[in-house]
Design a protein that fits this description.
The complex is a heterodimer. Chain A contains twelve helices and 13 strands. By secondary structure, chain A is of the alpha/beta class. In chain A, helix 1 crosses helix 12, helix 4 packs parallel to helix 6 and helix 9 packs across helix 10. Chain A starts with 17 loop residues before the first strand and ends in a 5-residue tail after the last strand. The model of chain B has no long low-confidence stretch (mean pLDDT 97). The chains are: A alpha/beta, B alpha/beta. The interface between A and B is large, with 84 and 77 residues.
Amino acid sequence: MTATFAGSPHSVADMSIVDIVSCGVFSAAGRGLAPLAEALVCGTTALPADAVEPDWPPVEVRPLGGFDPGALLGRKGLSRLTRTDQLAMAVCADALVGPGPTDTKPAYTDPAHTGIVLGTATGSTAAIVDFFRDTLEQARPYMVNPAHFPGTLMNSAAGKTAIRQGLTGLNATVSGGAMASMNALRYARSMLIEGRARRLVAGGVEELSLLAAWAWHRGLGLATRSALAEGGAMFALDAPGGKGPVLGRLLAGESSFSDPAKGLPVVSTQLAACVRTALEHSGLAPGDVSVIVPGAGGRRGWAAVEERALRAVFTGAAVPRLHTHHVLGETYSAGTALNLAALLAGWRQPAAESRADERHVAVLTSVGFDGSVGCLVVAHPDFT
Amino acid sequence: MPERAARRVVVTGLGAVSSLGLGVEALVAAVRAGRSGIGPVEQFDANGFDHTLAGEVRDFVADDHLLRTDPARWGRSGQFAAAAARMAVADAGADPRALSAGRTASCFGTTNGESQVMERLAAELVAHGPGAVRPELADQADAGRIATAVAAELDLGGEALTFGTACAAANYAIGYAFDLLRNGRTDAALCGGADASNRATHAGFHRLGALAQDVPRPFDEERDGIVTAEGGVALLLETLEAALARGARIYAEILGYGVTCDASHMTNPDTASIAECIRLAQRDAGIKPEEVDYICAHGTGTRANDSTEVAAVRAVFGDTPPPISSIKSMLGHTMGAASGFGALVSCAAVHEGFLPPNATLRTVDPQFGPGVDAVGSVARKAEVRIAQNHGFAFGGNNAITLFGKVTN
């Protein structure tokens, strides 16, 4: 099997290639791909959280740029939406409708065959904690706000986004901690190949919350110079066989597991095997990879686990790494989706600004605290 | 549509941690007898609630079931899933070392993830402020750890994926595992669902006025709501070829599944969307409506669900739909595990030849119209060639799985 998809539209490989048609993204760099590409060069600003909000721990955060939920979504019913709901709705709208005339958007969306796949670790942590809090603090434990109940469910954001966009196709919410948005992209790819949807808007969002920030701080979870951040990215993915312009192509997605109790080197070995399998399924060899986007860099100790795996696979000439933490911060469940947005943002820059040999095939990896590992293989639109 | 690979997928092992007992034998015996698992709430302080019944798992000691991992690593949902998975492997007579050495996936569904962990985090926040959060507890909050708990406990190396599609989640997980096996992307899979009893879920349904006065009475004219419940359920899936090769007992073949999204309302069910979900599942399985012998209903016992579900069934099956029942009449609503328990009972119905009862049914709601064959309060002997298992959820997620006798 080879990756000759440009010239052989009916090959086996073709049926496993999913087109990335458009992207909606809100990050510390702002809204859309263009500011993200710019920030990859200049970085974004991290602020001490406790200087902004007195209850917050002394960690650094990268505030979300250009995100005004009222302006983006309308004021009606806004208070019933969790931060996670708002992010997903805005990000998905940008993926389907596009934030402006210069941005990518699919030409036409068939709502009956279009769906949503969202990755989230827990749903809205703030909404869940607040709801529990009400059951403890109200005069009677059931005197909770019923309008806030749906927001405590993990599938709240995907369900509300489907309502807003009128999308009745396959709708799924998947979890997996730091792997959640990678899981969403992998699962969406599988479902498109299965023929269970024609288009899926897939990715992940992450909200900053007080409790989570304290947990990161007290658990010493953040790597040195890593800042917490929020945001999200979702991509309109089309079933194999599409004809229109694309931002990139998803060639493979793999995931596996190794219990960290067996030792972190075993997790690295598992990730290395996962990358090799994904490349094999893409009909590619490690030498074909022009850029690697590691996902675990923001989490203390895990960058080493990931890097050990990458060095085991990529033994030849050094493959450039696209590091995104100075721009995106640690966005946990949204991490892989935002990393993919960063990759595509770079690819959309004029050719003069990036080396031609970096515009072929990218490998995106991530590692979860639980020992889950995963890998995506993404091809540049020009790659044949 | 892509061409279908030839691999057929069968269920060879079942495991359950339920209010009706531990293990498939205890659960199925209780279901056949129409027993109730509902009793006083014990998993949280029910003081101040007007409704204090739930379908909780009693006498579950995780240490008795988890052999490889320390149960303290997992929340209650993860413990349920891991214990149920252990039971499913033992029930299948499968070699755990072979599952561990091969490609075995873990796919589980949940509504509220590790809700008891969240509850403890919130209680400690109220008592001591956010700065006192225990990171080791927060580390257990990810819902994804449910599938991970299974993978770690059985030392699996395949992918571990947790679905958060609320009360349809186990069917999503089973469907995905089915796809993985059918396409040769995994050699075996543990799949199912898990959720734990907690005060937020109870309070939420309480406030919506959706809790029953005493017990849930699906399809009854006087049904008045759900009873919150908990549990964990696991199915071991293998290819038909592998199961035959090792001489395994086969409960049922998974024939196909379907999913739809209402995209209309977060909490009200939608007749057209459910009907479409039934059609998609039947098309996926390559079967006609008249081939279905039994519907294992979502059947929550709320007025809205049951009438919507019957209307959707009528839209597909016409005036003489197959017999229908809801095991929630006995288990209560086990949330993300619910459609997994439905799958387990559907497999048993196909394998043993019985229709599970609507244990609390007194009079079928006449508003459903004529021809609705709601099974009575005890199980009925019947050949079940194909069982259709419903799972619907807040958020508009519908998922239906189909189980059948293995035929040539």
